[in-house]
Amino acid sequence: MRIGQRRRGVQTAGQALLALAGLAFVGWVLYRSQQTTPEPWPPPPRAAAPAARPGLAPPAAPGSGTNRPVPGPSRDVTTQPGIAPELATPAAAEAVGAPRPVANVLEAQIALARRGFSSGSIDGVLGYQTRAALRAFQQQAGLPVTGALDAATRARLTLEPPALIVRVITTNDLARLLPVSPTWLGKSRQPRLDFASLLELVAEEHRTHPALVRRLNPGVDWDRALPGWRVLVPHVPEPVIGSRLAFLRIYLQDRVLHGYDAQTNLLLHFPCSIAARVEKRPLGRLTVVTAAALPNYTFNPELFPESAEARALNRKLTLPPGPNNPVGVAWIGLDRPGYGIHGTPRPEDVGRTESHGCFRLANWDAALLLRLVWPGLPVYVEP
Predict the structure, then answer these.
(1) What does the DSSP 8-state code read for residue 243?
(2) Cis previous bond, 45, omega within 30
(3) Spatial CA neighbour of 129 closest among 118, 144, 140
(4) DSSP letters along 7-73, please?
(5) Which of 164, 166, 151, 154 minimizes the C-alpha distance to 100?
């Protein structure tokens, strides 16, 4: 009887020791989990065999689509090497969800662009054009017009996740690429003036500055991409404009174009380049007379006296269409000969005083405006 009691005592003591050891192990695991560096987001691209190259992700599964939301729980993209702190967005990996206030400048630019309030090329920087877009939104929303991303503006400027998506590079993307000749004569002999590089294509199709695309994808070799590789980009669906455009106003001093409905409600805000020479800037009322998508461009050497090549040419040239055409992807002709509103091959430069007289918009803004204008639409140019 005593032997049995001693055995039961030993078993009880052993079980107690095992329980204590288990608790110690659990505590150690919890401690280690708090000390571990968070997993970066987006995750670094995995090597693909056998055609993988450093910095690029493997081909997508069939039927995965070209642009889709980033899967997984919300994480902060600042944990990814090469992402600047001001570009951080907690929506980097959000699934589609209910609208929420914007968290930072990058999200604000995306939310503004989705509403038709363009800050130019999305870059995550609170610069002059972003402040102008914020002022336009504040005016429309009935908020104090400050140009600041303050608490009241964040609360009204909501964003429907995701803010970023994964774009899958396709064979069609790569087939479009075509180096652009540096000369006017060379451009006129090309079959089209399409994107010259994959970085340019991805940046423009997502309304984004090339520098931001690089910073969102620090490991990508843009000159060695293969179909199926993935890149992270801002998610800006085509803005839906609910009212009919009634008139446009171009403000020369602010270098912006605004679109209004018949009740003078502000519908659109675009940065706009204007003529470098004051005498080339028309004032007063103009009228839309023509509109064309993917236009040709007639190069008249007499209009480019600053160009040595133009001075040497003795004839006009016809340049083919494409995003690198001098007027971009859209031409909206006005009732003053030679004047129009159009796109540009360098959207990141929009908002400057550099044109020969026309009004330049980013290609994506020009394409949207093209679908909204109509013959006879008034355009008021103000100082």
Answers:
(1) S
(2) no
(3) 118
(4) HHHHHHHHHHHHHHHHHHHHHHHHHHHHHSPPPPSSPPPPP-TTT--TT-PPPPPTT--SEEEPPSS
(5) 154
Q: With the C-alpha atoms ordered 327, 328, 331, 332, is the resulting torsion angle positive or negative?
A: negative
pLDDT tens digits for 183-235? 999 999 999 999 999 999 999 999 999 999 999 999 999 999 999 999 999 99
Q: Indicate the helix (H) or strand (E) that contains 258.
A: strand 256-260
**Angle formed by the axes of helices 105-114 and 128-141, to 10°?**
60
Residue ranges and CATH numbers for the domains of the chain are 280-382 (2.40.440.10)
Spell out where 96-218 has E strands. Answer: 100-101, 158-159, 164-168
Judged on CB neighbours under 10 Å (0-12, 13-18, 19+), 330 is buried
252-306 residue pLDDT tens: 999 999 999 999 999 999 999 998 888 889 999 999 999 999 999 999 998 888 8
For residues 287 and 245, what is the distance between their CA atoms, to the nearest angstrom?
A: 13
> What amino acid is encoded at 338 in this protein?
G
Give the whole-angstrom CA distance, residue 96 versus residue 98. Answer: 7
Q: How crowded is residue 376: how many other Cβ atoms within 10 Å of its Cβ?
A: 9
pLDDT at 69 over 60: no
Lowest mean pLDDT across 42-46, 52-56, 73-77, 100-104: 73-77
DSSP symbol at 122: B
Radius of gyration of the chain (CA): 28
- 172's CB contacts (< 8 A; 6+ apart) are none
Do residues 316 and 298 lie in contact, with contact meaning Cβ atoms separated by under 8 Å? Answer: yes
